Amino acid sequence: MFKIVSRSLLFFLFAIAVSLSSCKEDEVIIPDPEPDDGSTKGTIYEPTTFSNISADPNVADYYITGILSVESELTIDSGVVIEMGPSAGIVVKTQGTIMALGAPGYPITITGKSKSRGFWNYIMVNSTDPRNELRYVNIEYGGGDASNNGTVFLNSGGVLSMKNCSITNSKKYALVAMGENSTLNDFSDNVIENNESPVKIRPNQIPSIGNNTIFNNNDSSYITIIGSNIITPLTWDKKSIPYLFRGNTSIESDVIINAGIDITFDYGSSIIIKQTGSLKAIGTSSEKINLKSCQDIPGYWNGIVYQSRSNNNELSNVNIQYAGGSPIYMGAIYVGGPISYPDVFLKMSQCNITSSASWGVYVQQNTEFINGGGNNFSNNIFGNVGP
């Protein structure tokens, strides 16, 4: 059973508990709202609703200590205020569902008892139920768990929608969607503010981050992308803050990068377009696509590797800086496939490639590289186009 506190009903429920001497051992226990050891834990096994008990938004309706596991339906009504104890968390298990449905003017608040970053841990979603939703929910002072490092955390297979929510004062990331096959169905009209870092996701989750999401005053102003395989078609749009790519991203389907996107690459990172994939990055003269490194050091990131024959492979109005760090793919852009599949295609025009630690563009034999004109090269150690 689960253990939570409805403060306004505490004394009434305590009186009932004392009077009913025949209660079974597995009845719900209402603990001290502030236990000395902060160890209250429990599980929701049947459909449960957290109702708005106090009309005062400054008074907590519920106080959770320890980990509250949700193995059935948990509905949280508009206006509810939940106070989280130290290291507390809500874990929506595989068979559970969370529906926290606030309303304009009557948001749900999930906050720490102490107003300090990382005071409580997370809301973790393992459930595949498409009804999992946070709507008009203000989430504050979480992110305290070092291993999961996100206030809202989508685990492997987890499904969640977030609309009109705010995540503020999180230690580490406000949102992490890193689990294999996790699905961020919708992330729109949200505010991510005053956190150490805003968002960490896989590249397939990029389209789910609504362009109207507000990122404000976070210590690190990047949408962090952790490299993985892309196996479905995607389009990456410009957001209000740049992307930070870490690790190697393999593209095995069709990916489009739209104008105006800024991507910063961490050390040793790369994008590799496999035989079944394609990458089209089309900027404009007024909205270039900028691909650069965390540090202004030639070869700090590896670059873009084209191993695909697709006629969709095209770069236009793209600036590429400080790449060429791979000892195998010796160019900021490498055009060439494995020995068993050497036939590769790329068209490039109006691009600027600068400060590569090797070639600007390395073109392997038996490939088709179309220089569409208007390309500029500078400060590339081995030369512009080779070998």
Characterize the quaternary organization of these chains.
single chain
> What is the CA-based Rg, rounded?
25 Å
In which range does the helix fraction lie? under 10%
Shape: elongated
Stretches where pLDDT is under 50 for at least 5 consecutive residues are 5-40
> How much of the residues is beta strand, in percent?
35-45%
Number of strands: 40
Q: Terminal Cα separation, in Å? A: 69 Å
What is the total domain count?
A: 2
Kindly report the average pLDDT value.
88
Spatial order of the strands in the main sheet? 1-4-7-10-13-16-19-21-24-27-30-33-36-39
Structural class: mainly beta
Characteristic key phrases:
elongated, 14-stranded parallel beta sheet, 41% strand, 387 residues, mainly beta
Task: Present the secondary structure layout.
Blueprint (H helix, E strand, L loop, with lengths): L9 H10 L22 E3 L3 E3 L11 E3 L2 E4 L2 E4 L4 E4 L4 E4 L4 E5 L6 E5 L9 E4 L7 E3 L1 E4 L9 E5 L4 E5 L2 E3 L4 E5 L5 E6 L2 E3 L3 E5 L12 E3 L6 E4 L2 E2 L3 E3 L6 E4 L1 E4 L2 E4 L4 E4 L4 E4 L4 E5 L6 E5 L9 E4 L7 E3 L1 E4 L9 E5 L9 E5 L2 E3 L4 E5 L4 E4 L4 E3 L4 E4 L1
Parallel strand pairs: 1-4, 2-5, 3-6, 4-7, 5-8, 6-9, 7-10, 8-11, 9-12, 10-13, 11-14, 12-15, 13-16, 14-17, 15-18, 16-19, 18-20, 19-21, 21-24, 22-25, 23-26, 24-27, 25-28, 26-29, 27-30, 28-31, 29-32, 30-33, 31-34, 32-35, 33-36, 34-37, 35-38, 36-39, 37-40
